[in-house]
Design goal:
Two copies of one chain form a homodimer. Chain A contains eight helices and eleven strands. The first copy, chain A, is of the alpha+beta class. In chain A, 46% of the residues are buried. Chain B binds a DNA duplex (30 and 30 nucleotides) through residues 154-155, 185-187, 195-199, 201-205.
Chain lengths: 245, 245
DNA sequence: CGGGAGCTTGAGGGAAGTCAACCGGGGTGG
DNA sequence: CCACCCCGGTTGACTTCCCTCAAGCTCCCG
């Protein structure tokens, strides 16, 4: 509930791309003009299948999704969580097929933006080109931080880091507290953090025992962001959020 | 030796950015015009310090470098290896300061491209804007693949994957064999793969024992790429190389 | 009320980490 | 020109974090 955007009409206007500082008003109008009709998916279905040709960039307006890859042995690694306002497959802007899949974690709605038209727009409107580059760079920064987490942090630290990141990305922090709807199962958390669901379970319990987080009804509460951030070695600088949040 | 580019004059012309298919001839001329004089660094020195303001993108022409972060506890994670032809800090195109450091691994030379001028160029020349976005997207793909490796592969698999990636990026494969100069210490490999140097040592020995790689005098030989790729679950698709290589 | 997905718990094992010592070669300085 | 030093590679013993397998539980939903 708390992180429902009131008045969200499932349109491109509610997305970070649209709200980018790099866009002028007529850039926004042009973008609105090429956005296709919003489409919805049930939970656990592919928005974009791995290596399939894709003609659109999907901008998520409702629900959660993830980018993921499957190893030969069948293990899954989630390489990025996609929350409302994010682009699912920015890479499709220049790549006709992407080597990862995008799958919904909940029922979700996304606005397709046709690649050809977006490319044409970027050609004529430097603001749009720059906004896209900006998002690619920020995605880069998140992946780099993820590499540090996967490579050099313990399971507990990774969990703390993940919850801190989401609290910031979802943007409903108030002072030192935060809470947000959180639809992931422990198995999906495991696939994000490079762990097993069993171990995630034990570590979540430990975080609970230390009163660092509460998870109930798919809703996370963080009573003391500073303490959780300290545990997870979290510094939001890499998210490059607008100063307001 | 084998991967020296003969005739490399330490200029921007030898870099992947310059050779991008997205650039027209006059884009290339404009790019050459704003590139500053090449600068050299000794081994193990910062090209860009973490969080320091940076006014240029550095395009590496000689030697190796890496992007890295240090955790609170002092552990290092290398988030990307930078080889000749690569950009060290593409992120600086839009970010006035980056939250990672770029450090040379060997003596190295790079060409600084002033950010302001590059931005102005991208504004007027869509080809340049698109080339930059392209590189950001490919960097993204490499980081995503790295996440899979860090999250879901064993030490041996990660090593095999790393050597396969480098063999492809350095572009001197011939049929099923590959060899290239490789300046990293085992500790630096460890920092790349999220391991310790002791464990890297043991696993490298195992790869050697199975005749999958030879390392001598900072030179790697891979007698059977297919076998190493199979071990590392490596598929070069994510590198989005030009079809020629 | 039954079924299933997801959470929880336990026992045991294995991959990788830690600590510590030794080796070996290339560079430096006396 | 040789001795020394230091960095990087190697090896061994021990530890620990996380995985695996397996079973039981809880809650939601039909």
């Amino acid at each position: 509930m708390t992180n429902e955007q009131v008045g969200d009409v499932s349109s491109i206007q509610s997305t970070r791309l649209f709200q980018s500082n790099y866009l002028a008003d007529d850039d926004r109008r042009a973008l609105s003009a090429i956005a296709a009709k919003a489409r919805s998916w049930p939970a656990h279905s592919d928005i974009v299948a791995r290596c399939a040709p894709v003609g659109s960039i999907y901008v998520l307006t409702h629900g959660w999704a993830c980018r993921y890859k499957i190893t030969r042995e069948g293990a899954r690694q989630i390489t990025g969580l996609v929350v409302p306002g994010d682009m699912c497959n920015l890479d499709s802007f220049l790549l006709p097929a992407i080597d990862f899949g995008v799958r919904t974690l909940t029922a979700a709605t996304a606005v397709p933006v046709p690649r050809d038209q977006l490319q044409a727009l970027a050609e004529k409107r430097p603001g749009i080109a720059r906004a896209l580059t900006w998002f690619a760079i920020v995605e880069n920064a998140m992946l780099s931080e993820g590499a540090v987490s996967l490579g050099r942090q313990s399971a507990q630290e990774r969990l703390a880091h993940l919850f801190c990141e989401l609290a910031n990305r979802l943007g409903n922090r108030s002072e030192n507290k935060a809470e947000f709807d959180f639809p992931l199962t422990q198995e999906q958390i495991a696939d994000t953090l490079g762990l097993t669901s069993v171990h995630v379970n034990r570590m979540v319990q430990r975080l609970r025992a230390e009163e660092l987080i509460t998870i109930r009804n798919h809703h996370v509460t963080i009573p003391d962001m500073a303490r959780l951030a300290a545990l997870g070695g979290f510094d939001k600088a890499y998210l490059h959020l607008a100063p307001s949040s």
